[in-house]
Design goal:
Elements (H helix, E strand, L loop, with lengths): L10 E15 L8 E5 L5 E5 L14 E21 L4 E6 L5 E5 L5 E3 L2 H23 L9 H36 L1
Antiparallel strand pairs: 1-4, 1-7, 2-3, 4-5, 5-6
């Protein structure tokens, strides 16, 4: 069992961070929301950028969402302690009526001084910012190349054009049958 660092009534500092959404220009399309693909036969196509594709039915925007993080240090008094096998959780009631849980080993860190909390908060902020930005800057389908996407869509266009032609011929047959019945 791990030994608690603080006791009931101790003043502690919780390190946390706040997140604010911003955006950057897409590094794939440089803000145009489209990329140029040159196929093996020399054909050039412009397709929607997958790097800044927000997903769903929305079109590419030319910008990628990104987040800025700011450290937030909160001063609290320990009102409860929960001892676990590998962690200690501290309960701290806030002035706003909310209860805050801080952990010696978890993501919400509890520190003895404000300076320690700033250092711990900076490490926590940097870790989360790096993870978030790595995820946001990845292509929507990293395992597919731009040329694969162009070929896929071009093949679908050809297939759909054949289907349109097939259905047009069926409509003509139906028109001729209607005239015979009259």
């Amino acid at each position: 069992m791990i030994e608690p660092r603080f006791t009931l009534g101790d003043t502690v500092f919780m390190a946390n961070y706040e997140r604010k959404e911003t955006s950057i220009v897409c590094p794939d399309c440089l803000g145009s929301a489209r990329v140029r693909v040159i196929l093996g036969d020399g054909t050039e196509l412009k397709i929607e950028c997958g790097g800044c594709d927000p997903g769903g039915y929305q079109q590419s925007t030319g910008r990628i969402r990104q987040y800025e993080y700011a450290i937030k240090i909160i001063k609290r008094t320990v009102t409860g302690i929960n001892l676990g096998d590998s962690d200690v959780e501290y309960r701290m009631d806030g002035h706003d009526g909310h209860c805050y849980i801080g952990s010696q080993n978890g993501d919400f860190r509890v520190f003895a001084t404000e300076d320690e909390a700033k250092i711990g908060g900076e490490m926590l902020r940097q870790k989360h910012e790096d993870e978030e930005n790595r995820r946001l800057l990845a292509k929507t389908k990293n395992h597919k190349t731009w040329s694969w996407n162009a070929t896929y869509h071009r093949n679908n266009i050809k297939r759909l054009e054949r289907e349109i032609e097939y259905h047009r011929s069926k409509v003509e047959i139906c028109k001729s049958r209607v005239k015979e019945e009259i």
